[in-house]
Design goal:
This protein is mainly α and about 200 residues long. It contains five helices and no strands. Helix 2 packs antiparallel against helix 4. The chain is rod-shaped and about 165 Å long. The N and C termini lie far apart (about 130 Å).
Length: about 200
Amino acid sequence: MALTPDDVVTKQFQHVRFKEGFDPDEVDDFLDEIVVEWRKTIAENDELKAKIAALESGAPAAPAAAETVVEEPVAQTPAPAPVPTPAPAPAEGAAATAGIIELAQRLHDEHVAEGKAQRDQLIADAQAQAATIVAEAEAKGRDEIARQEKERKALEARITELRQFERDYRAELRSFIEGKLRDLETSPSGSSNTPVSAIGL
């Protein structure tokens, strides 16, 4: 497969369910392809650099000069036409390197964005849970205060009833005793007309 920098930049990985990130096998396979193509590019660059260095040093020009000495001495000057032709290959290698760096940066940015999104989600969940706990605690507190207030009012009403009962009971008991005392004072005894109160009872 001929890998281009555009392939590296536009490569899309499938998301994996039940865990975060990309499919590790798919990423590894794609990186292996990048490594192979990159090594080819490096080898081609090295070969082209060697050719360029040889052309610049004039080593390959000697056979051409030997062939043309008999007919035309002007042909001793080597033609520089082949030199510019390999120039696009190093540029392509540089573009591939830039594409790989861009891919690495993009993957890094995606992981950082996913981490920030997870952090924000965890914070939002914690805040929502805390708000729920506080609301439930406040509701329970209000219910408990209302229950205690209701019990207090019931106890106060019961105390009021008991005090009223005590007052009524004392009043009835006093009236009963006073009535009995009056009856004893006014009723004649068996052998004497002396009131019981006069005897000292």
